[in-house]
Request: fold
Amino acid sequence: MVCELCNNDGGELLFRDAKLRVVAVTGAEAAYRGFCRVIWNVHTKEITDLTRDDRNRFMDAVYRVETALRSSLEPDKMNIASLGNMTPHLHWHVIPRFQDDATFPKPIWARAFTPTDMPPSATLGDSTKWKEAVRFALSAR
Reply:
């Protein structure tokens, strides 16, 4: 079985160390500005498979990413989810939500969408302020 998270970063790499990485989500899901994933680097299926120190390191990264996104984007709500049944890497989705995003208040997976479905006020652009905030939050350890 080919593992997509062993073969590539899984998005735009914002931070990486020996244990984990944080990526900005690219592709269709990038329609949600600030959408990041915190990914454990080695195959680990469940959080209970980690040692206490590794679990604390992983959850601290999720916390830091949420903090950086909240302070830099000021979303209406944050969604944090650990989903996935096929990828053998622990990964948490950290998703700032805005009232003008494509599926608010439903989950982002509630329906398929296309870029033309996006409200005009949901400008995604290439703003890097939130990306720099995430990088800083993880490097300030």
Q: What stands out?
A: The chain has a mean pLDDT of 85. The CA atoms of residues 78 and 96 lie 5 Å apart.
